[in-house]
Write a structure and sequence with these properties.
single chain, 313 residues, alpha/beta, Quinone Oxidoreductase, Chain A, domain 1, 2 domains, 7-stranded mixed sheet, 6-stranded parallel sheet, elongated, binds NADP nicotinamide-adenine-dinucleotide phosphate, GroES-like_sf, NADPH:quinone reductase, Zn-ADH-like_protein, NAD(P)-bd_dom_sf
Length: 313
């Protein structure tokens, strides 16, 4: 089969021939139709991610949409290394959610990963309650936008979107938007509108998270009211200076949500409901389709905020 292959973590994958996967017991051989080029896909292939494979070569791609031999569509992921979803064929096992025949494979492939990032926070880690106030740090990316849509669907009372891209922020259907600026003056307005935030979904970490945390913790209308801060992505840095007083001045609960800390079985159990919203268009990320044969140039291509490249074999 044709596949994208990483043989050097410092280089983009190349389009090449690779042995078809031999299905092991319990696996099923399928034809890949579409796979998203997510942040985790690039990070894993760079060897820098906590879930990077420990040996090369590898085929990148954490998830995607495939056609079964009976013609039906399935969302799949979690392939056995060295295989990934950026290939013509895959052997799938545990992560296999049937899709309606009219589902658009590129939309599903674009949206599940970014959509799942906040869905798991709302359902499992931060346990969003109806009427609560959610702040999304890094709201202009694909995951942040999906987080706004999912928050609304799951009954959030108020949504505050925080991001640095003014045009992208203006497109977001939030109750409040706060623009991150280089001068740091944005933390004051965030404190003004965010005194009653219940749950922060943090895609940035680093300096913007440090400044947001100070603004939100020091402006609580009721310091004893729980503030859950869920670390999901680290677009602005992998570390932050954490003031010890923040953990005493407010009822701050700091936790994370990711592939290793949340059991696969729990994530898988959420997939059908999330995918139903995606197929129904209620949570959506715009796909930008690119052929697999162009993977070497597509790998570093930038797309507009909120879009996701989808590789099509
Ligand atoms: N844990 C999970 O389950 C999970 C699942 C999916 C994604 N993630 C993580 O979540 C993060 C976001 O993913 P995504 O899908 O939204 O990616 P994306 O669509 O590429 O968007 C990235 C966003 O980050 C913003 N950004 C980058 N650097 C920034 C900085 N220094 N300060 C402020 N904003 C900055 C970008 O803003 P501009 O438009 O201004 O550049 C953009 O809005 C990634 O770290 C990803 O790995 C985690």
């Amino acid at each position: 089969m044709k596949a994208a292959l990483i043989t050097d973590t410092s280089q983009p994958p190349r389009y090449t021939d690779f042995a078809d996967p031999e299905p092991a017991a319990g696996e099923e051989s399928v034809t890949m139709l579409a796979a998203g080029l997510h942040q985790i896909t690039r990070a894993q292939a760079s060897g820098q991610h906590y879930a990077s494979p420990d040996r090369l070569p590898m085929i990148p791609g954490v998830d995607g949409v495939a056609r079964r031999d009976d013609g039906s569509l399935v969302y799949c992921g979690g392939l056995r290394p060295p295989y990934g979803t950026f290939a013509e064929r895959a052997a799938i096992a545990s992560v296999a959610v049937p899709l309606p025949t009219d589902a658009d494979p590129t939309v599903v492939a674009a949206t599940v990963n970014p959509g799942m990032s906040s869905w798991i926070v709302y359902k499992l880690r931060g346990e969003l309650q109806a009427g609560q106030t959610v702040a999304i740090l890094g709201a202009t990316g694909a995951s942040g936008r999906a987080a706004v849509q999912a928050a609304r669907l799951l009954g959030a009372g108020r949504v505050i979107a925080i991001g640095r891209n003014a045009d992208a922020l203006a497109e977001i259907d939030a109750d409040e938007t706060v623009r991150i600026t280089a001068d740091g003056d944005w933390a004051h307005p965030l404190g003004k509108v965010g005194g009653d935030v219940d749950l922060v979904v943090d895609y940035l970490w680093g300096e913007p998270a440090a400044q947001s945390m100070e603004a939100l913790v020091t402006n609580r209308s009721d310091p004893a009211r729980q503030l859950s801060w869920v670390q999901v992505g680290s677009m602005a840095g992998h570390t932050l200076p954490l003031n010890a007083g923040f953990l005493r001045a407010a009822n701050l609960h700091l936790l994370g949500s990711g592939l290793r800390g949340v059991p696969w079985s729990d994530i898988a159990a959420q997939l059908p409901e999330l995918i139903d919203h995606i197929v129904g268009g209620r949570i959506s990320v715009r796909p930008v389709a690119r052929p697999l044969r162009d993977i070497a140039t597509t790998w570093t291509e930038a797309v507009a905020p909120g879009e996701r490249i989808v590789v099509v074999p």
